[in-house]
Design goal:
The complex is a heterodimer. By secondary structure, chain A is of the alpha+beta class. Chain A contains five helices and four strands; from the N terminus they run βαβαααβαβ. Chain B has one domain. The longest helix of chain B has 34 residues. The chains are: A alpha+beta, B mainly alpha. The interface between A and B is large, with 64 and 64 residues.
């Protein structure tokens, strides 16, 4: 990881305003670390699309189709069993396992996709190098920007609501 | 607006973190906690002993017979899975409808789901007679050349419950990842820090993390609602796919789904009252929460009452003597105290919730919620026991009486549920900190 500056704020409004200001000044590669989701940040930082839901759809459909075909194959060809004259291809009865497995497939596929898209697990990260960042899971808000190309400290210190600046990843 | 009327606490985010995290990280367990742990551990031992005796001696130790083939095993299975269904349903449904009061209760309601669903899964497995062969229900390549019977409700149950438990685990864990990160950053002990660090997976709360997390969590909630409905519909199909009068009814799937939500919400009331006291968080779980849940329980009670009335109506309207006999036996036969107890718990006592004071007063709302849980358990007893013992063949008529081991296993599972919750209180944040703080922040900014 290249060195990054972490601008610390104590409220979300200042964080969002600072992100907007720096964005209009042409600062790229910004990220934020917050204790909860700040929806207003997303249009400013524009994180790239993650495709987790597309993965869920594909995994769910594949799992459902797989289980439906398994039931059809085993009940019609592999082990045909006449139960009270009911048709071998009893597709309504196959619907339960198909639906449940489809949902489970989507959930499991989505979980793996989410973990991958977040770059987790990652137990060691320069972000954790300083105890200052522990506030990012409590009540502090960090705007992260690459040190290379960042405005100078004097300019940054004039941002409204800025508590301090921390540098990580040197 | 007074503090008890508020849905969200009027506190700074840092205070909220401390309120939830400190009972886990900083405070030592009190004497009441240790007493509860000892009691529930003893009952859990009873459960293990019951299951061991059952595995050694077979299902003959239970009160089941050739008429009442299901007995307590299936009664308790349906009761537990009903409670288990509610947590994910509550959490997912309230998330999709953007109910702000959800954030104080969703975490422990989801934990309730996980614990209850795992306990529920034990009963059909041990009811098989040879529980060590339960994996035969799973399709896998085997030298016997066997595959599951896909038209059997037992196989539907396996897929429904296994999918549901795994789904609920992922939903619950995903919601808790940011809170594990909070514990990791707040913990001072090395072991706690390492354990929470592993569970948090290195969560840094970046904008990217939140965007992806929200995408997944929202989609899970959208899938969770139909999944829950399907799981308890499958449980209803266990009965309605049977031919016994009193079981072979199309109303069962929706009636079971509402019953599950009803009993689960009632259990949430009981657990919320315990958490409020144990964690000392009346500002998070306020009287307003009990007020809203009371209204939901009232609506559930009305739907259950209509369902029972529908059963009576169709027994009469069908002109089928066997159906009419089942209703008559339930109302006036050997099991009448159970049926009337069910009506008292599910239909009559919840009418107290029409009165706002009753919904908001704990010493009223909690006993009514317990009565609902007892009523729902009695409902499963009369549904499971009466129809097969008063079927179409008079030669098959019989009766059912539970044995010591039936009661012991039931009491043991109650204890095991209590044990898991007692440990949960000391290990996992019982309230979703990040969602609560997000809601509070949105309110402050609005």
């Amino acid at each position: 990881m290249t060195a990054r500056l972490l601008l610390v704020f104590t409220d979300t409004a200042s964080l969002v305003d600072a992100a907007r200001t720096l964005r209009t000044e042409g600062v790229d590669g910004m990220d934020a670390h917050t204790p909860w989701r700040v929806a207003d940040l997303e249009p400013v930082l524009e994180p790239p699309a993650h495709g987790v839901r597309r993965t869920m759809l594909i995994a769910g459909l594949a799992a459902a189709a797989g289980v439906f075909l398994l039931q059809t194959w085993s009940a019609v060809w592999f082990y045909p069993l006449n139960v009270g004259g009911r048709p071998l291809f009893s597709w309504p009865a196959f619907g339960f396992a198909t639906f449940e497995t489809g949902i489970l497939g989507a959930a499991a596929g989505g979980f793996v996709a989410m973990i991958r898209a977040c770059g987790l697990p990652r137990l060691h990260d320069p972000f954790f190098d300083t105890a200052e960042t522990e506030g990012a899971s409590d009540d502090r808000f960090f705007l992260s920007l690459p040190r290379e190309g960042a405005p100078d400290r004097l300019r940054l210190s004039r941002l409204d609501g800025l508590a301090r600046i921390v540098e990580v990843g040197r | 607006m007074t503090a008890t009327d508020a849905i969200l606490p009027d506190r700074a985010p840092g205070r909220l973190t401390a309120d939830v995290a400190d009972p886990i990280l900083a405070r030592r367990a009190g004497r009441i906690w240790w007493a509860c742990l000892a009691l529930f551990l003893a009952l859990t031992v009873l459960m293990v002993v019951s299951l061991t005796v059952l595995a050694v001696s077979g299902v003959g130790i239970w009160g089941i017979n050739t008429s009442a083939v299901w007995g307590f095993a299936i009664v308790n299975y349906v009761w537990w899975i009903g409670i288990g269904n509610a947590g994910t349903l509550i959490s997912a449904m309230l998330l999709l409808t953007r109910q702000r009061w959800r954030t104080s209760i969703n975490r422990f309601a989801e934990a309730m789901t996980l614990f209850a669903a795992c306990i529920a899964g034990l009963f059909p497995i041990f009811h098989l007679g040879r529980p060590w062969l339960f994996y035969w229900l799973v399709p896998y390549p085997n030298t016997m050349g066997l595959v599951p019977q896909w038209r059997s409700p037992l196989v539907w149950d396996l897929f429904a419950i296994a999918s549901y438990i795994l789904f609920s685990l992922m939903f619950w864990y995903t919601g808790a990842i940011p809170d594990f990160a909070t514990l990791r950053d707040r913990a001072r002990g090395r072991l706690t820090r390492a354990a929470c660090g592993i569970l948090a997976l290195g969560w840094r709360g970046s904008a990217r993390h939140w965007q992806v997390w929200q995408g997944y969590y929202g989609a899970m909630a959208a899938m969770g609602v139909p999944l829950v409905i399907s799981v308890h519909s499958v449980v209803g199909m266990d009965y309605s796919a049977g031919l016994a009068p009193g079981w072979n009814e199309t109303i069962f799937p929706p009636y079971f789904v509402v019953g599950a939500m009803f009993s689960g919400f009632a259990m949430v009331v009981v657990l919320a009252a315990i958490f409020r006291r144990a964690l000392g968080v009346p500002h998070m779980i306020t009287d307003r929460h009990f007020d809203i849940i009371g209204k939901v329980l009232l609506a559930g009670s009305l739907v259950m009452t209509v369902s029972y009335a529908t059963e009576w109506f169709y027994a009469w309207y069908s002109g089928e003597p066997a159906e009419q006999r089942i209703v008559a036996v339930q109302l006036w036969g050997d099991y009448w105290p159970l049926y009337w107890g069910m009506l008292a718990g599910n239909c009559i006592l919840p009418q107290l919730y029409w009165v706002p004071w009753c919904r908001r007063t704990l010493w009223v709302t909690v006993p009514v919620a317990i009565a609902i849980n007892i009523g729902m358990w009695l409902e499963r007893v009369v549904i499971t026991v009466v129809p097969p013992t008063r079927g179409y063949l008079p030669s098959q008529w019989g009766s059912y009486w539970p044995t010591f081991w039936d009661w012991a296993l039931f009491a043991g599972t109650l204890g095991f549920f209590g044990l898991l919750f007692t440990l949960f209180l000391r290990v996992i944040p019982a309230v979703s900190m990040h969602e609560l703080k997000e809601q509070v922040d949105e309110e402050v900014r609005a």
